[in-house]
Design a protein that fits this description.
There is one protein chain. The protein is α+β, with helices and mostly antiparallel strands. The chain has 2 domains: 148 residues, Elongation Factor Tu (Ef-tu), domain 3 (Beta Barrel); 64 residues, LysM domain (Membrane-bound Lytic Murein Transglycosylase D, Chain A), CATH 3.10.350. 15% of the residues lie in helices and 33% in strands. It is built from 4 helices and 11 strands, in the order ββββββαβββαβααβ. A 7-stranded antiparallel sheet has the order 2-1-7-8-9-6-3, covered by helices on one side. Strands 4-5 form a two-stranded antiparallel sheet. A hairpin with a 5-residue loop joins β8 and β9. The longest helix is centred in the middle third of the chain and has 11 residues. The protein is elongated, with a radius of gyration of 22 Å.
């Protein structure tokens, strides 16, 4: 297939559901990013014997990928508002553009008790994620201080819901490793009971995840539940 000559714009779709289906809102970016970067990471436990000169990193887990890019918001009228998804020039400069973007990606949604789930598509890239940080730098203003241009640095953390993770990894038994996202009301003993059929393994799981206080779990954090000897499916 040859190049058609059309300019494809980055599309950001925000979903209420973690399955990335159903109700959604869409936003076509005004100006495509100049570049984007994806970060992949491997976490290790630093195992070092007493008196040893160096550590022996043991594999812990692979956290979610990260995607970072920069968007430009322009309210000078230079960018034609006839481009699909581009907001027309308004007297408030880029205030409306910024607020629309924040409502899409950043604002808390009461019915799902969090900001929305995001899907970024551009060319061959499809990245499903949650917003981690949004940094906006204002660079041009009207004489009265109204912002006319800004650069927004967006950092996204890749997201796959637990059902899909289990499907991909076929994690259906306590003798396999599980990755669980902590939800409101979860406790470590309760999560252990769901996975292992007993809550008595919570101290071992706390040690694996370097938890100093197993009673205080952070909602949205991910915990690793490794195979534990003596626990049968």
């Amino acid at each position: 297939m040859g190049f058609t000559g059309g300019l494809e714009k980055m599309l950001i779709t925000a979903y209420d559901a973690s399955t990335f289906t159903g109700a959604s809102r869409k936003m076509t970016v005004t100006i495509n990013p100049e570049k984007y970067s994806q970060t992949y990471e491997i976490l290790y436990n630093n195992v070092q014997g007493q008196g040893a000169n160096g550590g022996s990193p043991d594999f812990n887990r692979i956290p979610s990928d990260k995607l970072q890019f920069e968007l430009i918001f322009d309210g000078t009228g230079v960018v034609p508002s006839t481009i699909p998804g581009v907001l027309p020039y308004t007297q408030d400069g880029i205030v409306t553009q910024i607020q629309t973007f924040k409502d899409l990606c950043f604002s808390y949604v009461g019915k799902i008790h969090s900001p929305r789930y995001l899907e970024v598509t551009w060319g061959t890239m499809v990245f499903r994620a949650r917003l981690k940080t949004l940094t906006i730098s204002y660079t041009l203003f009207k004489p009265d201080g109204t912002p006319l241009r800004a650069r927004a640095t967006i950092l996204l953390i890749g997201y796959t819901d637990e059902k899909e993770l289990a499907k991909q990894a076929n994690k259906t038994s306590p003798d396999l490793t599980h990755l669980v996202t902590v939800k409101a009301g979860d406790t470590l003993p309760l999560l252990c009971y769901r996975i292992y059929g007993t809550s008595h393994t919570y101290l071992q799981v706390a040690a694996v995840n370097n938890l100093t206080d197993f009673r205080q779990l952070t909602v949205g954090s991910q915990l690793v539940f490794p195979p534990i000897k003596g626990v049968e499916s």
